[in-house]
Amino acid sequence: MIGIIMGSDSDLPIMQEAIDILESFDIPIEVDIVSAHRTPEKLVEYSKNAHLRGIKVIIAGAGGAAHLPGMVASMSPLPVIGVPVKSRNSIDGWDSVLSILQMPGGVPVATVALDGAKNAGILAAQIIGTSDKCVLDKIITYKEGLKLKVEKAAKRIQNS
Predict the structure, then answer these.
(1) What is the DSSP letter of 67?
(2) Single pTM value for the model
(3) Nearest-CA neighbor of 63 among 36, 23, 102, 43?
(4) Residue 88 confidence class, pLDDT cut points 50, 70, 90
């Protein structure tokens, strides 16, 4: 199972892309709002206990100061993928990107592009795929589909 958390419900339109891609791979997910600043007790409980509930990877999306992914990574033994979200109070998203990207040694957070929740979902699926052949096969099929899509577009351009 993959945990998908975000700091606010305003992050859901971005994080929905992770939800959608993981559902397309038939990977069970758990989705919740966990604010580093407004629900710190919930953040601690979630971070320390997610692995006990069967979560294998955590995707954490946050905007602005974006402390959620790093704080989760500081307390959880699980891999954490951070999604910087360009929020309405953001400085062009750079505050979120740098807050997630610039983690101190010993507290890694895999960071995807600004608003890159789809890639976070794919990366989480690839992590799961290292120990689940069914998921790995779905990733291989997905990537083959990407290749075919590009080849089809190239032929369309060449024939026009």
Answers:
(1) -
(2) 0.95
(3) 36
(4) confident
